[in-house]
Backbone:
């Protein structure tokens, strides 16, 4: 897997993912919305740690800076 998630994107994904997980576990959300928040939160955190997002590949997005070769 080629990295396509940059540092700024990773930071934002962790913040949003943790907030979604907290909302899902706190009891503020009910039913399907709770499970959606937990799933989205988990996916956001996982993709930030592995630095790869399959949706970015489909859409042709790459926020990872490429280091110039010497």
Residues:
């Amino acid at each position: 897997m080629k990295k396509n998630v940059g540092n700024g994107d990773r930071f934002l994904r962790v913040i949003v993912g943790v907030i979604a997980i907290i909302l899902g576990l706190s009891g503020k959300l009910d039913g399907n919305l709770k499970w959606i928040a937990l799933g989205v939160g988990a996916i956001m955190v996982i993709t930030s740690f592995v630095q790869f997002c399959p949706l970015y590949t489909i859409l042709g997005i790459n926020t990872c800076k490429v280091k110039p070769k010497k």
Observations:
- The mean pLDDT is 92.
- The chain is about 65% helix and 0% strand.
- The helical segments are 7-26, 31-50, 54-59.
- Residues 4 and 61 are 7 Å apart (CA to CA).
